[in-house]
Amino acid sequence: MKIALAQLNYHIGNFESNTVKIIDHINKAKQQGADLVVFAELCVCGYPSRDFLEFDEFIGLCEESAQKIAAACKDVACIIGLPTVNNRTEGKDLNNSAYFIEEGKVKAIVNKALLPNYDVFDEYRYFEPSTEFDCIEFKGKKIALTICEDLWNTIENPLYITRPMDILIHQQPDVMINIAASPFAYNHDEERIAILSDNASRYKLPLLYVNNIGAQTELIFDGGSLVFDNTGNLVDEMPYFEESLAYYTLEDDNTITFDHPSTLKTDRPGDIEQIHQGIILGIRDYFYKSGFKQAILGLSGGIDSAVVCALAAEALGAENVMAVLLPSRFSTDHSLKDAEDLVANLGCKSETIAIKDITEAIETSLHPQFKNLPFNIAEENIQSRSRAILLMAMCNKFGYILLNTSNKSEAAVGYGTLYGDMCGGISVIGDVYKTQVFALARHINKDKEIIPINSIVKPPSAELRPDQKDTDSLPEYDILDKILEEYIEYRRSSAEIIKMGYDEATVRRVIKLTNSAEHKRYQTPPILRVSPKAFGMGRRMPIVGKYLS
């Protein structure tokens, strides 16, 4: 049996585009002699569709698309994912389903059993878990078809009380197929391989796994579809961060063979390389799927805005990036030079708008209220908010989307100005710690100098007061980021972190700052998720909570 794995980029709610893409790949696979074409979880509607799923019309359009796809399945079979109506009175109204289509008809329906309800996942909000499991017979073989999380209950401390494969294995399947929408994080590829390998070895069956690629607002899907033999050995690995169609033959003895050169990775890409690839895809899809082409950002000469500008130019083309230099009376000449050098290196568009007169006008207007009170954070933030007003005005006038340039370290401890430098349409590096931003800059410069070296080596500064340095307000970033990672990614308490050897006063201050800044993060733009625990939909904290503050 020749099986095609179609690793594609879908668009949520774009039924016409998704359906055409699926049918196109069915026809391509058919021309190559495939017997079965396998697509990803919820491919018909895109993942995650969230509360679109609460509209009956949306579910109806899913079924209409599925019938169009079925009509194209002549002399070839396919597996597609879509939401379907739960015909039982009890339980949620929908199932997360897979259709097995053969000769123009839906021959079997498999419903997802294990519905993740943690981090970025919220499937139990919409779907009813399946309790019935049956193999699919096709071409003399029995297929154990599962959907994403259905194979993720083999880990220690399992989240669910059942394993669908424990039931399906009694029906003596010949092969496992898993369709998935597994989001990207820089450590997720190795975890994914380990989990799926464990399934193949546990059940002594070959396993073909197909994943989504593409970005849906903050969620990025990296592809990397996988094929394992019946010992759990990884035999092939499809490309990451790009669409792909690959063919595999399930032989009579249930071994897997293929004709194309193996894309199995001998050296796994490092975290920074994966973050780079993920962000490029995230920016590109955010703009393309939203119908926008041009980005704008404030370029300060610092490392954060420099990295974001370089990433945007790579993702969208330098001609579609507008960098605006917004010097204040505290901006240094070398910062302006660094910003100008970056613009020259990238070839992007640029404008310079000084904010000195604007901020002084606002300060003058507030003089009766501020009287002779000393300069403090109020005046600092007037500068940041003046920049935001100018950038948003250019967005409105010329149709740009503003890129937010705050990093994860700043977002964590609230080192940013609401309605100032924290505004934007999408946060590009809001899930990248400052120390990772430095590493990302060096990675971008690996072949030639794009980001000026001075932007990388000079002490970070917001330049909102004379001789300001980030370390005036924060611990050194190499210490800060380690504490933040322990608290955010690993959910360790202050007491646990202190026991690891970190200074008690520093730990307690950092965690208090992090909790106190929750109200700021609640009002920030969507953040491209590249880590196992990003701010946003996957981390839900009370704004007025006192625990650990």
TrEMBL record:
Belongs to the NAD synthetase family. The active site is at residues 41, 112, 148. Deamido-NAD(+) binds at residues 381, 410, 520. Catalyzes the ATP-dependent amidation of deamido-NAD to form NAD. Uses L-glutamine as a nitrogen source. This is Glutamine-dependent NAD(+) synthetase. Keywords: ATP-binding, Ligase, NAD, Nucleotide-binding. The keyword Iron-sulfur does not apply. Its EC number is 6.3.5.1. Residues 1-252 form the CN hydrolase domain. ATP binds at residues 298-305, 405. Coiled coil: none annotated. It holds the Pfam family CN_hydrolase. The keyword Ligase applies. It catalyses: deamido-NAD(+) + L-glutamine + ATP + H2O = L-glutamate + AMP + diphosphate + NAD(+) + H(+). L-glutamine binds at residues 118, 182. It comes from the Bacteria. Pathway: Cofactor biosynthesis; NAD(+) biosynthesis; NAD(+) from deamido-NAD(+) (L-Gln route): step 1/1.
